[in-house]
Amino acid sequence: MSADGPGRLSRSATRVLAKEANGFHLLRIDSYTQTKTVLPGQKLSSNPFAMGGHSWRIDYYHNGRDASANHNAISVYLQLASNLHQPLQAWYKFSLLDHSGNAAYELPAENGSFAGVPVVNHYPHHNVRAVGMPSGGGEEPGPGCGHEEFIKKDELERREHLIRDDSIVVRCDVGVTEIVNSVLAQDELINAWGDEEDGYEYEAGMYPLPPMYGAPRGRHQRRRRADDNEYIKWCLAQSRR
User: Helix or strand or coil: residue 170?
Assistant: First the structure.
């Protein structure tokens, strides 16, 4: 019977690994006093950054994200900048850093459900761009998660250790479960492992035998094909990493 003939079943195995991915991104706002002229609903955005296999960005609204509200607070939001077909669960935490880089003001970490939106802020000319337009100006806010009242501006300005050389630094910590798929094992379909009785030969470039049966030292050296029970036991014995 040939390797790909009738009666021979193909075999394969997949490893799915769920692991926690954590990290943070810093958004430094220079010329803080100039950002006071930004209209409510207008934002300053970070460059996209990678975390947990996805792209994210921070949106900073000096005069609040809600253009219809009249409040004296800064708004910050975390946006998922990847296009996804279903929401993604993640935790996030925003803080402001002092002169030494320590979190001197922070809000508790929260869990959020993020829907993917396309990246709309481009940086074609040496990363220089205009301030984001408010709602109705060509871009909708997007379904991010964050704080409409992150910190009152008068409170921020009273805390001199949070403003240095007219700059502030916003830190956003993000945690997400990253799903990684990989091939655990795959059975050959055409002469990959070989069968001494049928005269199959190992072909270069095909998937190799599980280590317990050894890899052929030469192109034409025949090896016994592992039976199904041996194949399954080998798959179960592989390390979980």
Answer: strand
Q: How many CA atoms lie within 13 A of 108 on its CB side?
A: 2
Kindly report the pTM of this predicted structure: 0.69
As given in the structure block, the two tokens for residue 115 are 């829907």
Rounded Cα–Cα distance for residues 208 and 163 (Å): 60
pLDDT digit string (tens) for 95-147? 999 999 999 999 999 999 998 765 454 444 445 444 433 333 334 445 689 99
Which DSSP category does 115 fall into? -
Instruction: State yes or no: pLDDT of 191 exceeds 70.
Output: no
How many whole angstroms separate alpha carbon 186 and alpha carbon 22?
32
Distance CA 144, CA 175 (A): 15
Quick check: 60 and 81 in contact, CB under 8 A? no
223 and 217 in contact (C-beta within 8 Å)?
Answer: no
